[in-house]
Amino acid sequence: MSAPRVALITSSYAPHVGGVETHVAEVARALTARGVAVEVWAVDRGERPQGPPPDAFPVRYLPTPLPARRAASLARFARRAPGAWTAWTRAHRRFRPDVLHVHCFGPNGLYALALQRRFGTPLIVTSHGETTGDDDNVFARSALLRRGLRDALAASTAVTAPSEYVLRDLRARFGLTGGVVVPNGVAPDVPADKGIRSRLPSGAYLAAVGRLGRMKGFDLLIEAFARLRERGTPSRAGNGEGPDEVRLVIAGDGPERSALAEQVAARGLTDVVDFLGWCAPAEVATVLAGSRALVVPSRSEAFGIAALEAWRAGTALVMTNRGGAGEFVHDGEDGILVDPEDEDALAAAIARVLEDPALRDGLAAAGSERVAEFRWERVVERYLLLYPPAGTSR
């Protein structure tokens, strides 16, 4: 039986960076390595990567205009929609996919659903937590997306998500029946980036990484860090640190950066909190490897790839319990789970890790052993079990 031809249809792709973009790129590489014909179809957001394509599989950026209620918007959609539909049907006819695999449902999912109806090509939907962790709450605002997601879930041959947390939301609000958990993955090794070391503190520091949006909870971490320093708990062990000996390093960029900087200044933390801005994967790996712990304070987290990155770096993990992390992080064994909206509890969890080197080292060692469970090859193996055989599309 020949391998299916797979179109990975994503809401975002390079040059944009994030969990969805990483997931789709790594899955495409792993499928290609297995001899599967793959194309990535991404929403055209007006930007393209610079330089030659880095991978063997094609990437197509396709327009996804949607109607809106305002007359001007409707007129603009009427002008753009025929050309957009032609681009999508042309991509389908040229590649002839056996499966349309949607990642992070948005306008991309609506066009994939239209292709499924037009050509009969099997549809698979993978939610990355877009219904629970979106700062803009787009599914609450868009009846079109809500209806489209419900229809796509009903029409799909399979629906996956990185956690039961995400699947429960799809069942409760969008009519999903069933659903399969396919965890996220992480590359086994990332070379260190020596250049960023000059921007890191010479002493002990905590790390936080990710997009600086409200759902990621960096404001909660800053408040907890301020309370930790105010409390000034002394070290309980020979080489543990007290709060006044540790800095906080935040790697990432996003819409909340200015507000977070203002919060840091208002809490008198300007001299002990460093904003690194966006960091490449090798830079993130270097930041984590040198930190006492990674803190993930998300208000909602579908999975938390950052947890895997901490484990890979041999770094202790303090992780939100709001979302899917509790499904794979074992509290007290390979990470500390805590409610980040209880800022005193978050401060106490951080203090435990800072002040107890034996606990910190034990968490890091256990995480290092666990990370091998989350290779991208295993992710792809689970997807391949769900893909229909070649030639299924009519």
What does this structure look like?
GO terms for molecular function: glycosyltransferase activity. This protein has 394 residues and is of the alpha/beta class. The chain folds into two domains: 6-185 and 375-386, Glycogen Phosphorylase B (Rossmann fold), CATH 3.40.50.2000; 194-373, Rossmann fold. The chain has 13 helices and 13 strands. It has a seven-stranded parallel sheet, sandwiched between helices. A six-stranded parallel sheet has the order 10-9-8-11-12-13, sandwiched between helices. Strand 11, helix 10 (305-313) and strand 12 (316-320) form a beta-alpha-beta unit. Helix 1 (19-33) crosses helix 13 (376-386) and helix 3 (107-119) crosses helix 5 (143-155). It is globular.
Summarize this structure briefly.
One of its GO terms (biological process) is carbohydrate derivative biosynthetic process. Pfam families: Glyco_transf_4, Glycos_transf_1. Helix content is 41%, strand content 14%.
The CATH architecture designation of the largest domain is 3-Layer(aba) Sandwich
Strand content: 5-15%
Terminal-residue CA separation: 17 Å
User: What's the number of structural domains?
Assistant: 2
- Helix fraction bin: 40-55%
Q: How are helices and strands ordered from N to C?
A: EHEEHEHEHHEHEEHEHEHEHEEHHH
> Which spans of ≥5 residues are poorly predicted at pLDDT below 50?
none
By secondary-structure content and strand pairing, the structural class works out as alpha/beta
* The CATH homology group name of the largest domain: Glycogen Phosphorylase B
Principal-axis shape equals globular
**Rg estimate, integer Å:** 22 Å
As for the CATH topology of the largest domain, it is Rossmann fold
Question: Mean pLDDT, nearest integer?
Answer: 93
Q: Strand tally, please?
A: 13
CATH class wording of the largest domain: Alpha Beta
The major sheet is characterized as: 7 strands, parallel
Count the helices. How many? 13
Strand order of the largest sheet: 3-2-1-4-5-6-7
